[in-house]
Amino acid sequence: MRITLRLIVSLVVASSVVVFISAGYQARHEKVRLQEELERRAAILADTLQELVEPLMAHGERVADLQRLVERFGNRERLAGVALYAADGQTLALTASLPQQFQTLPSLAEEAIQVDDAKHGLIQVGQKHWHLFALPMRREASLLGALVLFHDAGYIETHATQIWRQNFIRLFIHVLLISLVTLLIVRWSLIRPMAKTVEWVRKLRAGEATEGALPKEALFGPLAREVTHMAKSLVAAKAAAEEEAKLRHAGESRWTAERLKEHVRSVLQGRTLVVVANREPYMHIREGRQIRWVMPASGLVTAVEPILRACGGTWIAHGSGDADRETVDAHGKLKVPPETPSYTLKRVWLTKEEEDGYYYCFANEGLWPLCHIAHTRPIFKAEAWAAYQQVNAKFAAAVLEELEGTENPCVLIQDYHFALLPRLIKAKRPDAMVALFWHIPWPNPEAFAICPWARDLLDGMLGADLLGFHIQFHCNNFLDTVDRLVESRIDWERFAVNRHDHLTFTKPFPISLAANDLSGPPQTHTPASLLRDSVLKELGVSARYLGVGVDRIDYTKGIGERFRAIERFLEQTPSAQGRFTFVELGAPSRILIKRYHDLGAELDAEADRINRRFQTRTWKPIVFLKKHHTHAEITPFYQAANLCLVTSLHDGMNLVAKEFIAARADVQGVLILSQFTGASRELRDALIVNPYDIDQTAEAIRFALTMEPHEQRVRMERMRQTIHERNIYRWAADLVSELARLRPDAPRARTVQGPQAV
Q1: How far is Cα 712 from Cα 449, in angstroms, rounded to an integer?
Q2: Domains in the chain, ordered, with CATH?
Q3: 421 sits in which H/E element
Q4: Rg over CA atoms, the chain
Q5: What is the distance between the alpha carbons of residues 694 and 369, in angstroms, rounded to a whole number?
Q6: Helix %, strand %, coil % for the chain, to 5?
Q7: DSSP state of 250
Q8: pLDDT by residue (tens digit) across 27-64?
Q9: pTM higher than 0.70, yes or no?
Q10: Residue 562 is inside which H or E element, if any?
């Protein structure tokens, strides 16, 4: 209540000052106006009387006439009286109603006679205010005296007093309104949300449920956001601590963010951690005059970002947002995540030519199809290779700058964009522990040898201390490739390469998700059937069963094969027509590359063809939504779907499969998974298919839709258990632990001579 009282008093004082100043100015202005008006009337009347009075005053014997004249003109429109005075001060005539004080010559009239000019002003006699207008009377060159007009000026003061009274009444009304409005505003805009905030924090402190966020009133918006983020962090930390305690009690060893943080702190022992990736975890884009941040849709970001959230460090990436430069400091850095800053993002700026050559041409028209073996011919251009080298050198300079002043730092390089980077870093910083994780498949030696600069790429990669792949099969392919193409020695027992007296170890690290929602028993969610009805209604489709696919629009994802499998399923199962709808959430990708641009049109045509064949007025089999979807937008589709189709023709891991499982707290739904994904090695309870076999995939769809709920539950529980145990924190812990174990001064392992390059 004190703040309310202070606010009211402050507003009342401010309002009073304004009213007093305004009233004073208004009263003064009105007095001047009325006085001027009175002076004008007096001047006009004096001029009129002058013509009558001067001839009579020239003849002193006509005093009686003068008296009759002043009596006749007295008491007109506030004219209280008229007086005539001789030049020597003698009173010649005076209206009888005037006070006795005016029997003598007023000083104002005396002054008018002396200066021979009209004079006017206000005087007070007793309690009464008078306005006097004195006009000299002349006859040719002789000064006869003065004519004085007396007006009652009391009404001027009365009017001024009335103005003050009105303003005081207005002030009183203002005070009442101010008090009432202030009380209402404070109650609804301050006290009520503050009370909600207090209650919300109290529940949080007491460990009670705190669903939803704090009040979103504009005044409390910034505070609400910060407190909400803090609360989420506290809840997450508490949940992690509780989970860790449960696991320790149960003798289990599942990984959490807190456990990873402690593990990395222990393993790295204060050494700097740097992550290098082409894709930045947060980008800033301009929308009108506003700048907002977005988290790009990327499996790499999904997998790696929780590591730096947990461990801190620096993420070095290409600044690709149109407002990225406006949000960093002079060194290209900023703290992220925006809501709870825990690590540093350092942006590297590339020219359009560098981005086109390094990213679009060499990396994605060359290395990507080369490694995926997806029947798209890789394209290699000398100028693109030059750009790739140039950008790798630029990133190496950024990393080395970040490592200045550090000892034995750890560098985690991500993906095929930076194959040359390990060698460049190790050449300048041999004390650095460098790991390169290859997020895409590694092909057989014959396929990789297509690249004209295959040996250069391998030499760059072998500068690393540790090379990580998703599965052992890719490790084997890499070692076979090295053995075939470059001079080296292979330690087949430890899967290591000795080149130029430097050991590079290879090891599989199956990447995963944070999967925080997998901890503990399933929470209460909206039933999948209700959610499914809602999703289909929003799409304008009437159906009973829902399938979902989530992919970048990429020729490696097998989206076309997926559509044709759905067509075959509808052919073979006519009862499903009108009852099953498949929604493909396709994120446009690399549209500047012709193959990707053409693919989008091909998939549109294929979906339209199938829809024209089967669709009805209220139903169609395929809904193709081409846009970038946030995780929040995708999750309802995961939770509502009867099945999820992942039909990659070749994939390193594919996290969509794991995201679908993580989203199914109801332990229902069926995952149909390509055998050519890394995930198929872990998620054995999915329906594993060959995506090139359209009939097999169609049969898997039929089997999934008819699978008993009990079997769905058993399969889903086992897969959820797998990704719970093998989550992103375990992946990071294994990677960092393995890297930290490989000290630069470690003794060289015994190696076995492999075949020499030809």
Answers
A1: 44
A2: 2-158 (3.30.450.20), 261-349+396-508 (3.40.50.2000), 519-726 (3.40.50.2000)
A3: helix 421-428
A4: 46
A5: 22
A6: 50, 20, 30
A7: H
A8: 888 888 888 888 888 888 888 888 788 887 776 656 77
A9: no
A10: helix 559-572
